[in-house]
Amino acid sequence: MSYDSHDSAHDDRAAGDWPVYEQDPTVTEYHNPAGGWGALKSVGKHLLHSRAIGTNARSLFKLNQPDGFDCPGCAWGDPEHGSSFEFCENGVKAVTWEATAKRVTRDFFAKHSVSELKRWDDYRLEDQGRLVEPMRYNAETDHYEPIGWEAALDLIADELKALATPNDAIFYTSGKAPNESAYVFQLLARLYGTNNMPDCSNMCHEASGVALNAALGTGKGNVRLEDFEQAEAIFVFGQNPGTNHPRMLGTLREAAERGADIVTFNTLKERGLEKFADPQKAGEMLHNGSHRISSHYFRPKLGGDMAVVRGMAKALFARDAAGEDVLDHAFLADHTAQLAAYRTTVEATDWAALESQSGLSRDEMEQAAELYARSKATIACWAMGITQHQHSVATVREIVNLLMLRGNLGRPGAGTSPVRGHSNVQGDRTMGIYEKPSEALLDALEAKYSRSMPRAHGVDSVAAVQAMRDHPGKVFIGLGGNFTRAISDSGVTERSMANCRLTAFISTKLNRSHLVTGESALILPCIGRSEIDRNTAGTSQLITVEDSMSMVHGSAGINRPADKALRSEVSILTGIAERLLGSEVVDWAAMREDYDVIRDHISEVIPGFTDFNARVRTPRGFWLVNPVTQLRFSTPTGKAEFSSDALPEAVMHQRLAEREGWLTLQTMRSHDQYNTTVYGYDDRYRGIENGRQVIFVNQTDIERLGFRTGQWVDLVGENADGETRRVNGFKIVAYDTPTGCAAAYYPETNPLIPLDHKGDFSHTPASKSIAVRLEASARLA
Asked: How far is it, in rounded angstroms, from Cα 298 to Cα 317?
């Protein structure tokens, strides 16, 4: 596969800069349930591939346990009771990927130039193993070369000091950073003088935070894991837990077994939302059994979820007007505001408009409304299928509107559940990683440290790319992650990052972003989540994380670090801070030596963390109380507020209906993938083996457009100005998706997403609504 992006008049990239995929994917039909023997086989394969079977087998028994370490994968909550096994197939992949016996040494970098490595795909890069010593890019030789820790930290501090303004620095955070690292990182940035703190939330659940804050006064979901045990109905919107949060399938299965309705709205038919075989149930495995997950499965067209939910509300209002008892009038009167305006907007919306935009019939929306009306306790879950559209904030508000109509807030078994990605992406935001900090946070920081904090908002992820593009000379520091592969518009992003004076990435594994170098570039290797973090006295350190349910708990690695030269994230960050800011205001060395000191600082600054050190050492940690559960709303009215947003005039599939040959594309993960980390070339549940360069298209569309299944095509998109961009060499796969809608994997298709194609208010790349057309590829089937 190769790709190109023609979004400017000048493209100065040399040929051969892009990853090459040689695989020819095999396509079969997958008939088995999610989980089951396929998951166990995958676990065995990844244990073997790590070349550290004994270490990783031992690690799995400590994964998500009170005396072990938190999974570096997803943020699904841990049950209070615990069990012998609290991990899933993807958790095994994450642990074995980190705890591999493979190493990337100075000899590797001496052998392979950066230009050569740019031709390697994402899997091959990370599969080389763990980074073991600091490296600095030498532009004259085009190779990374060793640099000592002190010299590397000195370089970062010197480059930051040399900037004309602190706002020329960008401090990016991945969601895997623990609370202690995140707090130190934001403190370093703000004492330095900037709020330029983009993070991975900007690219996934930003719309959830914006919408929930506006509606309820807090940006977090308000359900706990126990609520799933009491819900009578669970509505799942735009989510594929079988691949993205597999432990959630066990929770959904238990709800389905006791009779709860699992009502799914998802464009693709995903196996994990159809049926699941629990690998931890011996009887089920022996008899090849499984249990259904979704009781009802609706497939709206891409971007049509807001119309679906509004159709359900319209059906409820009609039944209420007819005298049926379907609304919670007492709750609405006591705890909500702006209901009348919302009802007027909904009742004025025509059914034909709702059907056209949603892709569902009126009967289907009324059926979904009936399922909702008969439930006395309902949870709504959603993920990136909702949050990565231009109108995502309005869609999340509409979901909250629906919950409020029947009083599904502040009661057991009910509420909002945005299912986050990385294991501490929510905790990082709690710790202050945000380009738009609240006045309360800045006031608390100023009171603690007796220093003024920057008040101007910083750049989010998209704005960071624009800043690097338009104003060269920035310093970019990445705390984990793979920024250039996570964000949209890959060509623009990489050219923009190359404008930096310095790029520095704190990482465990080699990835594409390390190869996009500024004038100077550093790779700073750190210990991983599964490894023991010792201070200079040899004492093991504890870190903490916050899951999607606002549970905060401890995590302590059990394995020896991959190399004795590795430093912890906190050690690296405090080392930079000492050189840049001195130790007059903050005793960075004390923080580095004892993370309890960091947690003491957190307890004085961040609400809800009083007695942090004591509370986090209790089994399963503690819950950050969500005021919504107590029907307290920090909104202007002091109540939960309805929104009356108009439906979009036309979502992408409607706009393309008049353009012959175009499809609406969504980007997504394969099953052998977590965010930008690619664990292999298979997507078991979708029947793909040995390849990622595929596009899933409805058979009717394949025939209508004049192509055939198995044909190789190039995907062509355009920006708002009509300038084209393309990715080349994708194999057509016939798949059960609504007509006009297609799907393919990211990051391979990120070049098709224009940088300014983003959500209103959230600025999240609109990765689930991309206009594309297909062209026959030079690569023949």
From this structure: 21
